[in-house]
Backbone:
C-alpha cells in the first residue's frame, strides 16, 4: 500500500512558484517586489497567469499571498548591512541607471506599495525605514567613489 | 545644605526625564505622520512583531555598521529612524497590554468564581508591564534604542507569553461553547 501523502494544492502551487519563478531572481528584495507586483492595486488580489493555468486562480492567489508575506518578513528581518548588499544586487539586476534609480526610489518610495496587507505595523515601519537607510548608504558609497576619482 | 542640593539634583533629573519624554513624543509623532492612513490602530495589529524583528530594531550591529561608514549625516538619520521605530514598537506593545487588560476585566465581570488573589496578581503584572513600557519610552528618547536591546527583548518575551496564554484561553473558551468541537 502506498504511503504517499499528496501535498495540498496551495502548497504545490507555492513550491511551483518557488521553483519556476522565484529561484530566477537573485535577491530577497527582488523576490518580494516581484510578488508584490502580482497584486492588483485596487482589489489587493494576487494573480499569476501561469500559476492560475496550472492550478486555479484561487489556489494561485493563496500561494502568491503566502509567498509575498514570507518574502516580506525575510527582508524585514535582514540586518542593515545585508539589506544594503541585497538592494545593490537588485539595482544591478534591474539594469537601470544607478543614479536615476536611487533618486527615484528616494523620492517616490515605491517599496512602500510592496508591503503586504495586514502585516504588523511596527514591522512595516521597520522595513520602510531600513530601505530608506540602505538607499542612503548606497548613495553615500556612490558619492565617495565619485569624489575619489 | 544637603536638602538644597538634593532638591536641585531632583529638579535636574526631573527636567532630564521631561526632556527625554518630549523628545520621544516628537520622534513618535514624526513616525506616526510618516506612515499615514495605511497604518493600523495601535495595538490592533493582526500579527505580532516577532522577537527576531525586535532584536533587529534594537540591534547594535546595525549601529556599528553605520558608524563604520563615518558619515555624521547618516548616523543622525539612523538614530532618528531607529528611535522612531523603537518608540512605535513600545506604543504598540503598551496598547496591546491595555487591550488585554480591558478584555480580562470584561471577562472577570462575567465570572462567578473570581479569585481575588489571582486577580490582584494579574493586575499587578499588567501594571508592571505598563510601567516598563513608560520607562522604555523615556529611555529610548534619552539613550537611543541600541543600549536597550536586553530590556526590550525581556519585555517582548513577557508579551509573547501573554499572547500564547491568550490564544490558549480563547481556544479553551471556543471548545467550551455548545457548538465547539468538544461537544461533538
Residues:
Amino acid at each position: 500500500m502506498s504511503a504517499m501523502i499528496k501535498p495540498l494544492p496551495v502548497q504545490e502551487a507555492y513550491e511551483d512558484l518557488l521553483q519556476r519563478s522565484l529561484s530566477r531572481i537573485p535577491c530577497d528584495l527582488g523576490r518580494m517586489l516581484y510578488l508584490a507586483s502580482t497584486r492588483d492595486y485596487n482589489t489587493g488580489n494576487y494573480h499569476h497567469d501561469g500559476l492560475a493555468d496550472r492550478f486555479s486562480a484561487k489556489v494561485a492567489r493563496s500561494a502568491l499571498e503566502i509567498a509575498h508575506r514570507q518574502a516580506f518578513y525575510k527582508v524585514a528581518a535582514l540586518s542593515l548591512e545585508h539589506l544594503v548588499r541585497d538592494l545593490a544586487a537588485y539595482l544591478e539586476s534591474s539594469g537601470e541607471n544607478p543614479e536615476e534609480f536611487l533618486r527615484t526610489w528616494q523620492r517616490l518610495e515605491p517599496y512602500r506599495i510592496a508591503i503586504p496587507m495586514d502585516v504588523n505595523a511596527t514591522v512595516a515601519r521597520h522595513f520602510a525605514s531600513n530601505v530608506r537607510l540602505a538607499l542612503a548608504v548606497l548613495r553615500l558609497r556612490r558619492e565617495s567613489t565619485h569624489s575619489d576619482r | 545644605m544637603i536638602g538644597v542640593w538634593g532638591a536641585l539634583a531632583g529638579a535636574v533629573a526631573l527636567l532630564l526625564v521631561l526632556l527625554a519624554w518630549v523628545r520621544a513624543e516628537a520622534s513618535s509623532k514624526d513616525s506616526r505622520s510618516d506612515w499615514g492612513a495605511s497604518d493600523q490602530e495601535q495595538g490592533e495589529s493582526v500579527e505580532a512583531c516577532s522577537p527576531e524583528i525586535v532584536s533587529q530594531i534594537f540591534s547594535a550591529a546595525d549601529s556599528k555598521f553605520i558608524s563604520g561608514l563615518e558619515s555624521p549625516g547618516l548616523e543622525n538619520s539612523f538614530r532618528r529612524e531607529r528611535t522612531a521605530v523603537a518608540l512605535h514598537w513600545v506604543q504598540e506593545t503598551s496598547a496591546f497590554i491595555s487591550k488585554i487588560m480591558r478584555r480580562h476585566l470584561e471577562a472577570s465581570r462575567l465570572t462567578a468564581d473570581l479569585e481575588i488573589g489571582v486577580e490582584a496578581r494579574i493586575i499587578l503584572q499588567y501594571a508592571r508591564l505598563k510601567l516598563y513600557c513608560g520607562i522604555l519610552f523615556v529611555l529610548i528618547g534619552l539613550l537611543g534604542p541600541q543600549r536597550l536591546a536586553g530590556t526590550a527583548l525581556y519585555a517582548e518575551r513577557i508579551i509573547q507569553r501573554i499572547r500564547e496564554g491568550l490564544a490558549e484561553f480563547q481556544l479553551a473558551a471556543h471548545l467550551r461553547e455548545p457548538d465547539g468541537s468538544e461537544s461533538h
